[in-house]
Amino acid sequence: MQLYVxxxxxxxxxxxxxxxxxxxxxxxxxxxxxxxxxMGQYDASIREHLKVISIAPNGPPGDxxxxxxxxxxxxxxxxxxxxxxxxxxxTKIMKEYPHSKWSGHAKILLDLIQENxxxxxxxxxxxxxxxxxxxxxxxxxKVDLEVEEKKREKAR
Length: 156
What we know:
74% of the residues lie in helices and 0% in strands. The chain contains 6 helices and no strands. Helix 2 (25-38) runs antiparallel to helix 3 (42-55), helix 4 (62-74) packs parallel to helix 6 (101-155) and helix 5 runs antiparallel to helix 6.
């Protein structure tokens, strides 16, 4: 003989037991990192995104955290801007997360950084060439003045 116990409330018998969702610390740190980035607290944002990567090094949201770090290091208004670190972070996404939606974004930003660096080098080279030409013009003016002075001396 089996004993049947009727539930106190009929809804209790029909409601499925809810499984408690495990806490996802990586997403919590990702959200905090985004908030800090929006507030211009770049160092703190990088720290939060690094926590994400330490928790989820081989998958999402590690890819997004790497992108955010690359973005911060590439940002011209970040006092500790470091294109080398930006390139490293963005390249990591393309290599370790090739199918991530962040991989395409990383490629675009990487191309922009590299183009910016190329233009910066070209500008620096043009500036150096400009300085050389200015010096040549000044030397030419001095020679012209000396020639004029000698002509005057001969004419006397």
